[in-house]
Amino acid sequence: MSKTDFPELDQLHPIIQSAVRAIPESKHYLIALSGGLDSMALLQFAVPYLLQTKNSKIQVVHIHHGLSANADDWAKHCLSVCNDLNLECYVERVSVVSEGQGIEAAARKMRYQVFEAYLSDNGVLLQGHHQNDQAETVLMRLMRGAGPEGLSGIPQQRDLSKGRLFRPWLGLSRGLLEQEVEKFPIAWVEDESNADLQFDRNFVRHEVLPLLETRWPKVLNSLSRTAKRSSQACQYLLEWCEAQKEGVLSKCYDQAIDLASLAKYSTQQQQLFVRYWFDYMQVEHPSEKVFERLWTELIPAEKDAMPSLRWGDNHLRRFNGCLFYLDAKAVDEQSYEYVLGKSSCSFSVGAKKLEFVYLSSQQAAEYSVLMGGEVLLRVPLLEESLVLRSRKGGESIVLKGATQNKTLKKLLQAKKVEPWKRVQLPLIYYGSQLVMAVFDNVSDSLLSGDALAVNGEAAILVRWRLPE
Hints:
The structure is a single chain. The protein is of the alpha+beta class. The protein has three domains: 3-224, HUPs (Rossmann fold), CATH 3.40.50; 249-330, Chorismate Mutase Domain, subunit A; 337-465, no CATH class. It contains 15 helices and 21 strands. The strands form five sheets. Strands 3-2-1-4-6-5 form a six-stranded mixed beta sheet, with helices on both faces. A five-stranded antiparallel beta sheet has the order 11-15-18-19-20, with no helix packed on it. Strand 12 and strand 13 (352-359) form a beta hairpin. Helix 5 crosses helix 8 and helix 5 (131-143) crosses helix 9 (219-248). The model has no long low-confidence stretch (mean pLDDT 90).
């Protein structure tokens, strides 16, 4: 490919030259090409510099959402341009389904799934978002009452899958990019939906920002500074929360908040940490109304109470002085009963898989050291059926070393097992006798003494773990 296929970097505006030179080093660059002005500028202005200075692999990906009657033409345009420039271009068709989150959010989700699939280790995805995009994002989030995190806007770079995402144009206005593109024979496409004012972003783009610029000509720079300062504030708050995490999270329950430890902080600090906790758990934040109920209903409730909050499929529960987040699977009261055969098998129980593996005496001897998620049971006698079922109530068990039955309910209460886990607890029976109540850490399970494997004999390896 000759250098004349692209504009020379020194032909471009100095601000654009600086933006291109700031692209991180990588052996693999992936360019997101929609065919619009910003991504075409990225293709035409950044690629020659990368080819001449980085000795890197460059690929282009165009996402075909199928949402416009012109989508096929946009894909053909991108393929044609890349073919003329001797660049690898891949058109990926995606199916966009709203699922209650809106078409824009659903399309974004599908795009990033494709980008992550293409991005190699330490690769860099380049996107064409510019200063106007940043201003629109900040204004829209401001109208929704966002705090520092929301007002941070679009990050210039962040980790993505095995590599990194970078946006060279984020500090440049669309006007500057358009001014430079028009100096060269560069064609771009316009998405007709960008003119539809029923969409909030388009209303901000075509009505709000132009009006603000007539009064405050430097409003784009001002909103960019707002995003930058909000991002800096967020980074400080994130570091503060990270420093408190070990002292606030429960030592007894995985990823739960110890409310006594949380109470040592001011209300503002508590709320800040809980919002951080939602992000840490990758949980959709509740509305402000639901969030306020956390402080008026859940946290101040009586110690022996077990109040709960719900938004969508998300649940907050309080138990034993701790605050728990639960998804729909965690509170699903699944009812089941399986009679197992004499061969290895597995069953999905909640989000995990419970496995039964028959071992010969020689194989069982090799399991002298078990992992925390494993236990060895004896093989049932011929007259004993092996049954796996959910709780029904009224169960009892003779524990190892004991001579009398104890009710499962009291044993679980004494161990302070979370109520929602008590309901879901898998139970293993030999005939009519309960021999094992399976805990998350299988080696901590409630076991009947005569159900354990005997040295030198065949056995059943029981494992309960997340699917691979």
